[in-house]
Amino acid sequence: MNKTPAETTALINELKPLVADSKNKCIVCVPYTSLANAIEDCKGSNIEVGAQNMYFEESGAYTGEIAPSMLTEMGVKYVIIGHSERRQYFAETDETVNKKVIKAFEHGLTPIICVGESLEQREQGITVELVSMQTKIALLGLTADQVKNTIIAYEPIWAIGTGKTATSDQAQEVCKAIRDTVADVFGKDAADAVIVQYGGSVNAGNSAELFAKEDIDGGLVGGASLKANDFSVIVNS
To answer: CA–CA separation, 165 vs 28, rounded Å?
Structure first.
């Protein structure tokens, strides 16, 4: 919940020349109120636009929610689903995440699905099992081809906004577990194609080490994305 429309425009305009030569995919997921600005500001650039959430119904008496068609009509291409903050503060469940993922594909949106464990769950030694289960439920009902066009972000809840970061080895272990889970259910081709990201206090100082790991294809970036210089370093890592 950062940046007004005007502030979003200023940040994107500062960011565009810093990532213009990057061969990596750069997506900015902005608040609903800034989507129109972001889409206009990103025209002609290599930055794409996503939303931070959506609902799993087409329309109806769901005051305050946003339907997928409302996003696609604006030109939104991506949507974050099941972010740890949505799960923690707004009672999202594995099941509602799955409903949203299915609905996103029905409307041609690429879902950025978030999975991850709490500190207590990590200390209990159930990280891999938990994240594997979250991944399986999130992808339930999808085809292998749909999974190939999915982005899955591993977000250790204990590292979100805390300044704590999983070590690159810890992040690699869980990202590999996610890819192995996809392989078990949908086959090796889907596992090779799916994009697996790490999210959890990614910053300009640790991004290169994280992204060098075999199963980490990129980052879901929070606080560091609010500073164009820092974010551009991450994008270019």
So the answer is: 21
